[in-house]
Amino acid sequence: MTRGKQKIEAQRRNAERNQKAKGSQLEARVVGLKVTCPICKVQLANQNQLGDHYASKHPKEKPPTDLS
Which of 68, 42, 45, 67 is nearest to 56 (CA)? Predict the structure, then answer.
């Protein structure tokens, strides 16, 4: 019955590994959002998304060319 003990140990190790991997990805999401719309303050990942956002949400406004 040696395989039974190995199986239980393997299940325990896998459960510990899987438990560490689960969790919230909010921190990673915040790091990825670098550009903010000056009108509505929505956070976007890059300038291309900002241009698309302006086209759909603020069609009468021109998107800023530089957000330094």
Answer: 42
**62: exposed, middle or buried (Cβ count in 10 Å: 0-12, 13-18, 19+):** exposed
DSSP class of residue 66 equals: -
Q: What tokens were used for 49?
A: 């998304």
Residues 36-52, mean pLDDT to the nearest whole number: 92
Q: Could you give the angle at the alpha carbon of 22 between the alpha carbons of 32 and 45, nearest 5°?
A: 10
Residue 21 has a pLDDT of 55
Q: Contact, 65 vs 50, CB < 8 A?
A: no
SS3 state at 38: coil
Cα–Cα distance, 48 to 37 (Å, whole number): 12
